[in-house]
Amino acid sequence: MKIAIAGSGALGCGFGYHLQKGGADVTLLDNWEQHINTIKEEGLTISVNGDKDNQKMTICKPHELKEKMDVIFVFTKSMGLNAMMESIEHIIGPNTKVVCLLNGLGHLKTLEKYIDRKNIIMGTTVWTAGIDAPGHTHFNGQGPVEIQNSDPSEKEATLEIVEMLQKSGLNGVYSENVNYTTWRKACVNGTMNALCTLLDANIEEVFQTSEIDSMLTRIIKEFAIVAKHQDNVILDVDETITYLKGVAAKVGAHYPSMHQDLKNNRPTEIDYLNGEVAEASKKLGLEAPYCQQITDLIHAKETILGITTAKAK
User: Which residues form the Ketopantoate reductase N-terminal domain (predicted)?
Assistant: First the structure.
């Protein structure tokens, strides 16, 4: 099976590494010249749950890959999804499946501009990753990768990808309600990512504060209201908080991707998380003051750092 990883940063490299070790024919796609050259010359150096390895991998820029792919895993930042899909249209065949594991909300609408719904597979992952240097990454976790076909008729094809993920050690699981898992993952990022970024702390430090229950409750209540109105997804606030604490305990002293982005002067995905909830609330005639405040504060930090924050959907 020919696999492309569209967006080979830390998480993309982690998935590409595992899929290749599991027997798939993997090509990493990225636009970071130094990252590409390092992997071409030295291989991908990766630490997986503390165990270091080096793997020779094929990598190139999106326009340089000419073959049609069987499966494409998308791992861009939310604001980069449009641009990536435009750059890989030539490798998408009539039966190519696109698996979207992006953080955030609203990505199905973007994907449908480029590919038939029957070929779109949505999902979530709780694996975490980071880039230590060009061509050097770390990848941590053990949780599931939950996916579901957007078209009900495509379940068999999705189950094949689940099997491939399992074979590769990525704990593939078929989801019967991907909207629920997507909103639940958005809750993870709308709390952990946002709070760690604002407080300049890792997940362990934030979740040890005496204020954590109060902060989580206020944020999750706003997510839950929009999830119910917009997608008929029911999020139990107390259960979601218990889940978040369990994830935090497993992840420990990790700085999430949003914190890493600001540290490296890159725009964040806040508009696709808390910002999406705040915007959707306004359209519903509701208010989401905590998500709006978090969004404003993150954008204020971006402005202070001179980072362009234009939202592109």
Answer: 3-150
| 8 A C-beta contact, residue 178 and residue 149 | no
b/e string for 40-57 if b means 16 or more Cβ within 10 A? beeebbbbbeeeeeebeb
Residues 133, 39: Cα–Cα separation, whole Å? 11
Rounded to an integer, the average pLDDT of 179-206 is: 94
Give me the sign of the Cα torsion angle 292, 295, 298, 299.
negative
Determine the pLDDT at residue 310. Answer: 54
The answer to whether 130 and 260 have CB atoms below 8 angstroms apart is: yes
Spatial distance between the Cα atoms of 255 and 140, rounded to a whole number of angstroms: 12
The CATH homologous superfamily for domain 179-304 is N-(1-d-carboxylethyl)-l-norvaline Dehydrogenase; domain 2 (1.10.1040.10)
Least Cα distance to 188 among 125, 278, 230, 261 occurs for 125
* Alpha helices in the chain, H assignment, sequence order: 10-21, 33-42, 81-87, 107-111, 155-167, 178-188, 194-199, 203-207, 212-231, 237-251, 257-263, 274-283, 289-304
pLDDT in tens, 37-86: 999 999 999 999 999 999 999 999 999 999 999 999 999 988 899 999 99
Q: Could you list the active site residues?
A: 185
| Residue 109 CB neighbours (<10 A) | 9
**DSSP bridge pairs for 148:** 122
Radius of gyration over every alpha carbon of the chain, rounded to an integer in angstroms = 19
2-176 fold: Rossmann fold (3.40.50)
**Inter-residue contact 264 to 74 (CB < 8 Å):** no
The yes-or-no verdict on residue 167 having pLDDT over 70 is yes
pTM of the predicted structure, to 2 decimals: 0.82
Q: Where are the domains positioned within the chain?
A: 2-176, 179-304
Cα 23 from Cα 133, distance rounded (Å): 26
